[in-house]
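In full, the data.
>
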Amino acid sequence: MSSENDATGAEAAQELGEGPAWDVVVVGAGPAGASAAYAAAVSGRRVLLLEKAELPRYKTCGGGIIGPSRDSLPPGFELPLRDKVHAVTFSLNGRLARTRRSKRMLFGLINRPEFDAGLVEQAEKAGAVVRTGVTVSRVEQHGPAVPDRRSVAVVLSDGETVLARAVVGADGSAGRIGAHVGVKLDQVDLGLEAEIPVPDTVAEDWAGRVLIDWGPMPGSYGWVFPKGRTLTVGVISARGEGAATKRYLEDFIARLGLAGFEPAISSGHLTRCRSDDSPLSRGRVLVCGDAAGLLEPWTREGISFALRSGRLAGEWAVRIAEAHDAVDARRQALNYAFAIKAGLGVEMAVGRRMLAVFERRPGLLHAAITGFRPAWTAFTDITRGATTLAGLVRTHSLARRALDVLDKRA
């Protein structure tokens, strides 16, 4: 997935001293990076998207596409859905299971390799140049590699230097760009996942239905997401509980009667949430998605946060690329931070409150969502994209009062 002619021409422009070859360089081709590259390229700017892996590549992720994710996709993007969810079974560490159903689809399920590759293809169609198998070693905004104050040098592992007017970091929660910006984290969780091929008879039993199990450790939960003849089974809990998290996954799989099926893939991943005072930029460099620590703290849902923050980062990176001095660039970076905090930041704040309640009173939340119709309605509204956690608390006095009461009880 690369356009070698465009890349060669851009590199020639650098050698001729014509300034940065790229208006925007995006590091990382996941949902956040592809969205940023698309948003910048669709405005007519010269955009380079760098990815260290070859695409498509596997990513540890449940693959749930809720309404906010669907609504943030490029126009005309066709979701490669593996299943459509109309029912959810909730259980409390394997007990008190209850299934709630909906006539309308709640959310869709995708495989990340297909989904991510499709987003990159959309960025390419918009005009972005894609280079895969490229590792970024560091970013420099000062020094001999930077020809002027409007440039950023992206230094690759082989020594090549790529110049840009603005850089977007979307290279994951442990990436180089987040470290350059100085991203600070206040929540780190461990997710373990297995992709389990199953016979048709088992697959049919799960079709259109997911399982969410509130787990044995504070803040933990497990899931089963069906995708044709493969079940994505995973658990997540706070980092530092590695042995207990592994045990939870093993017990969870055994309890489901799936221990006799060999996983095609077993993987793990750390999710990281930013602290409230964590920076989102440094000079002409922005971060988005996992690289910025942007995800919902309670459910650890990150795809919608990646898509939305990536789009904003791409749009504001274009403005930074057009900035003629450091003051203007700083102003645009602050505007990006304000846009993130006013939207996703508010959702994260409510998510933190929900996580605090869930860590202490998981049974209370289980009882509410399985036995209290307004709670189930709120769940369906959020998954479909009719509202968000923050929107629910802001616009519904009952939800606001309920969260206040739960806060006090927790």
Summary: Residues 2-18 have pLDDT under 50 and may be disordered. The chain has 13 helices and 18 strands.
